[in-house]
Hints:
Number of strands: 12
Number of helices: 23
Shape: flat
Distance between the termini: 73 Å
Strand order of the largest sheet: 4-3-2-1-5-6-7-10
Strand content: 5-15%
Mean pLDDT: 87
Structural class: alpha+beta
Helix content: 40-55%
Low-confidence stretches: 469-473
Amino acid sequence: MRTYWKALLVLVAMALVMAVDGVALVAVLLTFGLAFPLVFAATGALALLCLYPAVRGWKDNRVRGVLLSAALAAIVFAGPAIVGDWQARRLVAVATSADVAPPAMPENPGSLEIRRPSSGHDGLFEGSGACGSECRALLRSGRVDWVRVVMLDMRGKPLDEQPVRVRLGRGDDCAAPGFAADGGDTCILQSADDGAPAGLVLSFETGSGKRVEGLTDRGFAGPRRIWRVTARRPGDAAPVLRRTAVEIRRPAMPAIVGPEFNGMNSEGIRFQQTARRHGDVSLSATLAALGLAVNPAAIAEERTAAVRTRGEPPSAATTRSMVAVLDLPQAAPFSRDQARPVAQWVMQARAIRDWTPERTALFRRVLRDRRIQSPTFADQIFARNPDLARQMLPDLLEVLETDDGEAVYTQARRIAYSLADIDPALLAPHATRLAALARRDDRTGHAVLLAAGRLGIDPRPLLVPFAGEGDARGASALVRLRAACRAEDRWGEALVPPLKDALRDVRGTPGFRRDFVDAAARALARFGETDHLRATLPGLGWDERRIENTIRRAGRESRNGPDC
């Protein structure tokens, strides 16, 4: 018995130590995981306590002691999970108490509106787009004429003013520029939204258990998250259908006791828990409950069709989806979900090597469409294809010259940032127009200013002075330094003296001075002024290692030019 009590005392002491905030996590990290078994010392202590009857009666009444220990072990290690399951069923009953099931399959609604969270939908929908695999399969089945998808933010409000409305296209609707027409094709296309009410509205919501009255922790079980879908017809107060799914945490089987790990912290002694979702409110299950069930094979076919081999140019389906978006009559900027087909086409177009007239015309439409204000890879296409860039530069300049510079993002401005990455010979014929744009003190001007040293003209009128008291262009000081670093080698002799002057007298906030010195040092290192940097930068707080790293990186040439 003495050995038993010693072992129990050690395990209890270890469990108390591991219960201190952060100790368990630190122990595991410092021992590279070797101390992980010690985290569950409390479980070992419980096991030893259950063994007490067997150890105590081992000599006198072994059978009774073993049976008592087995009963204690069953209660301790299985009881919490059993009680937790019973409490979880009661929580499920509370969560689904307000659910409504349709008394009979409703008639075909003709059209559908889906109101869904923009993120964190936890597998309720397939795919990342607004209309996923099950939505597309429903349209192809002909059960509905169109589907409107409204993305919601965390508060349940519409994320964008422009919802996504999709329909099934046939025949000529599915023709794609540059691809042979197939009269038997069907395709899913975005269409203009006239605001007409849909025949049925599905509203999906997700959140914590606080959304349901009475859904609170009950001993061993506790609600973690709920999902609810409600189906309504326009004008009807009562829902056609309401379903609720709830995720409930309860102790694992067998019970494991130890500290709870929460991110980068560990604390306390608790039963380790497992989470299980009760109920299915996915779009597929909801459609089936409403009599709009979609064949799983059709969903799988849509899922397979969405898979693209890396390095392939845009397919006919991707192309016609983008054209449908560009053909929308709306004047307002596209929402991110509306512009998704455009972003997909541009991303895949990076693999195009033969820019046919049809493909060039499509890229020109993308470049000139001001409604696209979400990020794409259009700048990479421009930088990687010199012949295409030569054809597109007049269009780019026209768009930039009429840009008011207020929008946070535009296709043309993103391409303008990449002008410093293309052959200067392509920019030289347009030097006058580019220089005029670079003088603008707005987002557009700053984007073009990066290429000031690659226009074939003296860049000093555009870049110098780099900074100084009373400089009206202070907001673009860092841009001018980066432009000097990206300038052609022939301008080094002209730019080095003003760069040294700028490094000698740095003013502004501490954060600005830090960034300014770093940018000026990179530019001087780019032009080989290593001795000047070694003599000057220590006085500005730089150590030898940082100076040498900056000098070494300046000698690296990448596809995008020097390290600036």
